[in-house]
Amino acid sequence: SLFLLDWIYNRPRPEDDAMPLTIANFLGLPIFATSEAPYDIVHTGGNFMADGFGTAFSSYLVYDENGPDGEFNQTVKTPAQTDALMDQWMGINQYITMPTLPYDAIHHIDMHMKLLDEERLLVGQFPVGVSDGPQIETNLQDHVMGHNSVFGDPYEVLRIPMPPSTGGQYPPSAS
């Protein structure tokens, strides 16, 4: 069955918050909201990728925003409680989470990684040892490569070069 799920956005954006209900009404779909305790969860679309078969990827931002330092959460949740809500509401039984990058200020996973299909990841590649490159490589080795795709195979990683920031330099030296 098809339905929409509306979670708490991680910043005040009233027009964004109004869209799920507008879309659900337009398409005639049921809508559920994880905005009331004990089901409240704070998350952003840019920090969530799912394969449609029960596997999803996020940075630890999801844990930070639902934990004791969360600015928009209603109840404090442990990572295990957050994972359980993602399973209950999104059908995510393999939630691959990883540390945020040191120079990516918004900590959204889509700033350096994209799930192309159930078996392939497009991953940003910095010059060796530069900027967010070391953390991306650690995340791949420690958090992604230990999991298999829905078909039981290791993920294929395709690389895309990351450009320098304005001024031709990479963080932290970028202006």
Describe this structure in words.
There is one protein chain. The protein is α/β, with parallel strands linked by helices. It has helices at 14-27, 61-66, 79-90, 133-144; strands at residues 4-7, 31-34, 49-50, 55-59, 94-98, 113-115, 120-125, 156-161. It has a three-stranded mixed beta sheet, with helices on both faces. It starts with a strand and ends in a 14-residue tail after the last strand.
Which SSEs are present, and which pair or pack?
Blueprint: E1 4-7, H1 14-27, E2 31-34, E3 49-50, E4 55-59, H2 61-66, H3 79-90, E5 94-98, E6 113-115, E7 120-125, H4 133-144, E8 156-161
For the structure shown, list the relevant keywords.
alpha/beta; three-stranded mixed beta sheet; 4 helices; globular
Number of helices: 4
User: Quick check: average pLDDT?
Assistant: 93
Please give the largest β-sheet: 3 strands, mixed
Amount of beta strand: 15-25%
Q: Enumerate the strands of the largest sheet in spatial order, edge to edge or round the barrel.
A: 3-4-5
Q: How many beta-strand elements? A: 8
Distance between the amino and carboxyl termini: 48 Å
Shape: globular
Q: Topology as H/E string?
A: EHEEEHHEEEHE
Q: What portion of residues is helical? A: 25-40%
Structural class: alpha/beta
- Low-confidence stretches at least 5 residues in length (pLDDT < 50)? none
Query: What value does the Rg take, in angstroms?
Result: 17 Å
